[in-house]
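Hi F.,

I've been meaning to write this up properly since the lab meeting, where we talked about keeping a consistent format for the predictions we share between groups. The idea is simple: the sequence comes first, exactly as it goes in, then the structure tokens exactly as they come out, then a line or two of notes. No screenshots and no reformatting. I'm using this chain as the first example so we have something concrete to point to.
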Amino acid sequence: MNTTIKAALTAALTLLSGAALAQAFPAKSIRIVVPFAPGGNVDINARAIAPGMTELLGQTVVVDNRAGAGGMIGAEIVAKSPADGYTLGMFSNSVYSVAPNVFAKPLYNPIRDFTPVVALTSVPFVLVIHPSVPAKTLKEFVAIEKSRPGKMTLANAGVGTSNHLVGELIQLSTGTKMASIPYKGSGPALIDLLGGQVDSHVDQLTASIGYIKSGRIRAIAVTTDKRSSQLPDVPTLAEQGLKGFDATTITGLVAPAGTPKDIVDRLNAAAVKVINQPVIKSRFADLSAEVIGSTPAWFGDYIKEDFARWTKVMKDAGIAAQ
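Output, unedited:
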């Protein structure tokens, strides 16, 4: 057989098999890997959309928590899974922007190893403290820390997470230095903050807002350039002297690199439909999260830009990879 004809037939068969795979998708259950422990923002996003996607796709969508190494362990599982749409990752800036910069030997490349599916929500970070700490403003909190340097504790969701790095930037910006206590996700960190085992935490507002409103923890500041509509009395860091400070978490679904476009588009359509359901939209709004529902291309562009941003932040702040 002529080599050119053979190559053309092979290409045609590949396209046909890919189209058949996409047409039959999904034929079994789908797994969403959450690279953190239960209870945090990323986990909340996954569990909010899984039931609706199960209904729309006709196959069970399960959440699989694989915590560790700032989200890298779970992310590596996704990166090394078959590109067939049956293993997805629920990632935030911690996973696709921060951890690959913080760790000297990252387990994946956030641009090369994943196919973006959809950006789901945007949510502020919030600096929260245990009520035993007698501070109500950033100025008071900084004064307490400086009166006993190195003795105040700051929980983080794990070394290499955006929670961790935003906490470091707050300390750099205020000239403070607290003892950093790493956890396998913001959920476990929040539990210890509630119990008074740690003094403070930088958390996504989705996970902390219920405890803030009940008075079990106190919000000192939000990290975005505008106040949260759910916490209108809590000022921003910029309002309290840290001019230009603006940090947000954008959480979304990714698939392994090479996942067929038809499958990505079907997953995107299902996820967007779920998060635009009034009950889901209302639930996220109550948690101070803004629904996005982007295209795959928009999310891909955002990941590239945010990865570059945190690369620059690390360099400018003098934070060395570990």
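Notes:
DSSP finds eleven helices and ten strands in the chain.
The CA atoms of residues 84 and 247 lie 34 Å apart.

If this format works for you, I'll send the rest the same way.

G.
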